[in-house]
Design a protein that fits this description.
single chain; about 1200 residues; alpha/beta; 7-stranded parallel sheet; 47 helices
């Protein structure tokens, strides 16, 4: 049945000849629409397009792979309907090379093809993240050392301004962040130079011309409008019939003052009017008998305005505009020096990468840009013009996560320069949650606000229908974001155009079953032993238990109008989303596990904190340098050695005056009786092992060294035996993989590997813990970021009471991606630090943008749920606070700017939004005491159930007793097959017929020259009684070597040449190393010559000349066990494997031959010994080639004759 598309989806699929921006809400089927657009293009009957003429850019490799798979499936379906269509067949072939790729992969292909345009060595590689972090750290150290040696006053002032007294890490961080921000722009040097402009102003006119000043004035305009709004509400309330009329005159004056402030247009005006504003004391209202709620609301709103004005004065108007200009001028040398340092770092880092011939992801973008865009004119290059011809259309998925460099690259290869619009962009700015990766959602918003919704060359289409979630889920999301997400904080105004509309049909459940839940957990202040995370996890666990009893979900997503059927919820249907994992995920895993709920956390971090990883790293630290106290103590107290804290104390007190390593060494040699025998032995063994592997470390690859030391200490086996052993062992194996990856970098040696891993930890480049075998029915815990693009039947959004992370606003240098950086004013001589307007305002701007990003993160979280959404958070004194949480809304229905600006948790946003329409989102207050009571009841019920069960077991029913007895006495009917071999070699059949040793089997008739033999005493020596293998002497099986040598010669011998060439062929094979040097003395050419001159040899020559001679052919064949093995009647299939020496075709039938070097008395003995083996060979050949074996022959080199079998 053909899929039905909405009107908007149909437009997205079919519109051509324009730049098209698709704003696709969560669950609107944007990927399906994008794939359909591609399929329509390549299957168009009038103007079909080849798939490799489309450039399709996605955000991740996984998304690109999924897109390619979907397109491939769609082409296959189309071929199913038109199997002879040559164009579709061509598309199936072209798909593998189609440009369905990430932006970085596209850049890499451009660089690979046009490296000569930028003088780049084509033998480059893309460095991995850890190597780059280490290289950045090294280069930055060298850069700072250079500037410290120069000791310029400006640099020393910069160091004093940013670095703390203890170290210069804040300065390093500032340079690295400034570098990263710059690299997100097409021309980073230009951006860095522009960062200096605010500090080069001469007067207020120049200040107000700055982008920073424009943003500051816009902020003051927004907040002053809010003051005017709230004071206007206060005035109007006081004038109502039951309002506090005595406040009226004063509120009228204050409202007018706020309106005057709002009418300001320059910084000077804002400064004068805000600083000149004051609030008198409200008149007494003791005898007021009107509406007390109105009176209280007036006081609350007025106090909010007063507090806000006070903060604005403190933050931005703490000095006159003239003083502010002077302070910015004072910061000029420091600002210039910071930019100079960042540029110097950029230069040196680039040099180091070129020396090592490595690129990072920034290089991929900027080198591609350099190839595609002329640096001077900023116009597309010749190369861009060439590439442009290859693409009929460029499609960009997840466009909201693009940055300015990527935008410039896409524009360069588009046909805009030719006046043709051919860019298709799809995304959702409400789901732009990668600001920390330099995503710039304002690129999307710029087009969102300028593209028309009517027919045009630059058109926007909104996909608002949601085909993922029930109406109840969408209703809650809409109710919340209608109140809190606006362009000033959030990047987009959430209105009817941005809202979600249900488009999927679901089967109905019981009343209230699919209504969203809002659980607010209130901790007991007197019980301080329970952490908030654990308390919330307990509430979530209790809710999950309730759901498992009654909650239903849809069996399958409804398709083609079908409602589907309901089924009971499973644990695997439930996911718990957290803003960040860390301690929250650990607490949830612990508590849910205690409640008997199977759970797994999909963490993207935590690797370095795993005990087994830390122990292995400490062990490597000791191999590099054992004189490190903490690693030494850690390894000694680990299971590798197994000493206790008491034992370590004994060692330390026994040798108190030396370093700990020396104390351990001295203790092991001088105080052997101080520890128990086992512990002393373990300590001694460990020190010996340490010495042994320290010697190996200089020449052994690190991954091998790590593997060997883990094996020899037994630590890997130990962790495997622990609970969760598979995951722990996988963590150690991952460490070995990291060592292999490190060895592929430009760094070498154990010291650098340890430093490499430490740098990864220091710069937060963590790895996810290894995951064991995925259990099917478990509750999953994951971060909201990881859930993007996924969907789940039941979603808990938890940890809503956690404060937003505002760390970047407290840094000494506050960075902003478009406005540059802000710093305080430091008087180095007098050691005084005074606030800087640039730093204060950029901190506020960053905070607002962070809050906007958090709102988008919340949107992503709420739109993951298909059927049931549960919100949970911890709020102290909740019962007291909830009634007073009343939102103030503006005329457009949104929470006021001040309310939104003052919210610093998801929970605060949600509670304020809910207060506007509490009936749409019922709230349940869960107290800590009630959770305890519930737990006690469950424990009691469980205990009662056990008592009842035990009582019933005292008098078992006969029927059940018989069933239990039958089960417990059950015997596995195929026990005799448990130890049965499932694969046997042909040689085992020989051993069944011949009970002789391998050496005797291969013994040949040819005498050996007299040689000293192991076991016979030479003259003057005593006879050896100890077997050679016990003395470590490797004994050779001479007979086996001779057999191998003869077989090898006959395998390599060219039967198409006459027998007279035997000696010559042997010499050639020896020179070509086809016969090992150690085997050459055992080849007996006279015996082979005799065989070649036989009638059989002549037949083989004839077959070889016809190309019908086959030698050394391996086979595997299945046979019932009863036919292949002795002592069994089983029909279980057994695999038989072997290698056939030679067979050849003669008159359409097969002649089978096997060479034998056994020492036998007669031909009959030899034939009896190998009859079964040749029968198996015959069966294998006849099965494989489908021709009859007419002769089975053995050639005995011992007897010198052909033996029929």
């Amino acid at each position: 049945m053909e899929k039905k598309w909405t009107k908007e989806q149909q437009q997205v699929i079919s519109l051509e000849g324009r730049n098209l921006l698709v704003s696709a809400a969560a669950g609107s089927g944007k990927t399906a629409v994008l794939v359909e657009r591609i399929i329509r293009k390549i299957t168009d009957s009038v103007h079909p397009v080849d798939i490799d003429k489309l450039l399709i850019v996605t955000y991740t490799n996984a998304a690109a792979a999924e897109m390619r798979e979907r397109i491939g499936a769609a082409i296959e379906r189309a071929l199913g309907q038109q199997p002879e269509n040559p164009h579709l067949q061509r598309q199936q072939t072209l798909l593998h090379n189609a440009q369905i790729t990430t932006i970085h992969s596209f850049c890499l292909s451009v660089i690979r093809n046009y490296f000569h345009r930028i003088d780049l060595d084509p033998d480059f590689r893309v460095a991995e993240e850890g190597e780059l972090k280490l290289l950045k750290s090294d280069v930055l150290d060298q850069v700072l050392e250079h500037f410290y040696q120069e000791a310029k006053p400006e640099f020393l002032a910069l160091s004093e301004t940013i670095a703390t007294g203890k170290n210069d890490m804040p300065l390093k961080d500032a340079i690295l962040k400034l570098f990263e921000f710059a690299m997100s722009y097409p021309w980073p040097e230009e951006w860095l130079y522009n960062c200096r402009k605010p500090f080069h102003i001469q007067n207020m006119e120049e200040f107000e011309a700055l982008p920073l000043a424009g943003e500051l004035l816009a902020y003051l305009d927004s907040i002053s409008s809010q003051w005017a709004l709230q004071m206007g509400i206060c005035r109007d309330l006081s004038m109502e019939g039951d309002g506090p009329f005595m406040y009226g005159p004063l509120l009228e004056q204050e409202a007018q003052a706020m309106e005057r402030i709002g009418a300001s247009s320059t910084y000077q005006q804002y400064y004068e009017r805000i600083c000149g504003c004051s609030f008198a004391r409200l008149p007494s209202a003791r005898k007021f008998e009107g509406d007390m709620e109105k009176k209280n609301r007036i006081q609350k709103l007025r106090n909010e305005v007063k507090d806000s004005i006070k903060k604005v004065k403190e933050q931005f108007l703490f000095q006159s505009p003239q003083e502010m200009v002077k302070d910015m001028q004072k910061n000029r040398p420091v600002a210039d020096m910071l930019v100079e340092t960042a540029l110097y770092f950029m230069e040196k880092f680039t040099e180091k990468k070129r020396e090592r011939n490595i690129l990072d992801f920034n290089d991929l973008e900027h080198f591609a840009l350099k190839i595609l865009v002329e640096g001077k004119t900023k116009e597309p290059s010749r190369t861009a013009a060439e590439l442009r011809k290859n693409y009929v259309e460029i499609m960009v998925d997840e466009y909201q996560d693009s940055n300015y460099v990527q935008e410039a690259i896409i524009k360069a290869v588009s046909k805009e320069a030719e006046g043709i619009s051919n860019i298709f962009m799809v995304g959702d700015v409400k789901q732009s949650i990668y600001r920390f990766r330099m995503a710039r959602p304002e690129l999307f918003m710029e087009k969102y606000n300028t593209y028309t919704q009517e027919e045009s060359s630059r058109q926007r289409i909104d996909l608002r229908m949601n085909f993922r979630s029930r109406a109840q889920v969408l209703g809650l999301a809409n109710d919340i974001f209608y109140r809190v997400m606006k362009e000033d904080i959030g990047g987009i105004t959430y209105d009817a155009k941005a809202a979600l509309y249900p488009g999927a049909a679901f089967p109905e459940g019981e009343p209230g079953m699919f209504e969203p839940c809002f659980l607010v957990v209130e901790p007991n202040p007197e019980e301080k032993g329970t952490k908030p995370q654990e308390l919330e996890a307990k509430a979530v666990g209790m809710e999950i238990k309730k759901m498992m009893e009654s909650q239903m979900v849809t069996e399958e997503m409804p398709k083609d109008g079908s409602l589907g059927t309901l089924r009971p919820v499973r644990y695997s249907d439930i996911v718990i989303l957290l803003r960040s994992m860390g301690s929250w995920a650990d607490a949830f895993v612990k508590i849910l596990g205690e409640l008997g709920i199977p759970v797994r956390a999909s963490s993207g971090t935590g690797y370095f904190s795993a005990v087994e990883v830390q122990t292995a790293l400490n062990l490597l630290r000791l191999l590099d340098n054992p004189r490190q106290d903490i690693p030494m103590a850690a390894v000694l107290s680990s299971p590798i050695v197994g000493l206790t804290g008491e034992d370590l104390a004994v060692i330390r007190t026994a040798c108190p005056k030396v370093k700990f390593y020396q104390a351990v060494m001295d203790f092991a040699s001088k105080f052997p009786g101080s520890l128990t025998g086992t512990q002393q032995k373990k300590l001694r063994s460990f020190l010996d092992l340490l010495e042994k592997f320290r010697k190996k470390a200089s020449y052994t690859p690190i991954h091998e060294l790590l593997y060997q030391v883990l094996e020899e200490t037994g630590y890997q086996a130990y962790v495997y035996a622990l609970p969760g052993g598979e995951v722990r062992q996988a963590n150690l194996e991952m460490l070995v993989e990291k060592a292999i990856a490190y060895e592929n970098t430009s760094y070498r040696g154990l010291f650098h590997f340890i430093r490499y891993m430490e740098q990864l930890q220091e710069y937060d480049v963590d790895f996810p813990l290894a995951e064991g075998e995925e259990a099917e029915d478990v509750v999953r815990i994951m971060s909201i970021h990881k859930s993007k693009g996924l969907e789940f039947p039941v979603v808990f959004v938890s940890g809503l009471g956690k404060m937003f992370n505002n760390q970047d606003q407290r840094e000494r240098v506050v960075l902003h991606p478009s406005l540059g950086f802000g710093i305080d004013v430091v008087d180095v001589q007098r050691r005084l630090r005074t606030p800087g307007l640039t730093r204060r305002f950029l901190a506020r701007k960053t905070f607002m943008e962070n809050v906007g990003e958090e709102l988008r993160v919340l949107y992503v979280a709420l739109t993951r749920a298909k059927e049931k959404l549960v919100l949970t958070g911890v709020l102290k004194k909740a019962e007291e606070k909830l009634p007073s949480l009343q939102a103030v809304t503006a005329e457009d229905g949104f929470l006021t700017f001040l309310s939104r600006l003052g919210s610093n948790t998801f929970l605060q946003f949600l509670l304020l939004a809910r207060s506007c329409a509490p009936e749409n989102c019922p709230l349940t207050l869960v107290k800590q005491e009630s959770l305890k009571e519930q737990e006690v009841w469950e424990t009691a019920e469980e205990g009662l159930t056990r008592v009842q069960l035990l009582a019933e077991l005292q008098e078992p029913e006969p029927e059940w007793e018989g069933q239990v007895a039958a089960r417990l006495s059950y015997e596995y009917p195929y026990e005799h097959e448990v130890a049965m071999k499932t694969k046997v070699s042909v040689s085992e059949f020989k051993r069944r017929a011949m009970d002789q040793a391998l050496a005797e089997e291969a013994e040949m008739m040819f005498p050996l020259p007299e040689e000293p033999v192991a076991g016979k005493a030479e003259e003057g020596q005593r006879e050896r009684y100890i077997p050679a293998f016990m003395e470590g002497v490797q004994e050779e099986n001479i007979g086996a070597k001779r057999g191998t040598a003869m077989h090898r010669m006959l395998e390599c011998y060219d039967f198409t040449r006459p027998p007279e060439t035997l000696q010559e062929q042997f010499r050639e094979l020896a020179e070509q190393k086809k016969i090992e040097e150690s085997l050459q003395p055992f080849v007996r050419l006279p015996a082979i010559r005799k065989f070649l001159r036989t009638e059989l040899g002549a037949r083989m020559q004839a077959a070889a000349k016809q190309g019908k001679l086959c030698r050394e052919k391996p086979f595997v064949m299945g046979k019932p066990a009863c036919e292949a093995l002795e002592g069994t009647s089983s029909r279980e299939m057994v695999l038989i494997q072997g290698i056939i020496d030679v067979f050849f075709e003669e008159d359409g039938e097969i002649v089978l031959l096997d060479y034998k070097t056994d020492k036998v008395a007669s031909a009959a003995e030899l034939a009896g010994r190998y009859r079964t083996q040749l029968e198996l060979y015959q069966e294998a050949i006849e099965r494989a080639v489908g021709k009859k074996v007419k002769e089975r022959l053995l050639y005995s080199f011992s007897l010198g004759e052909i033996v029929p079998v």
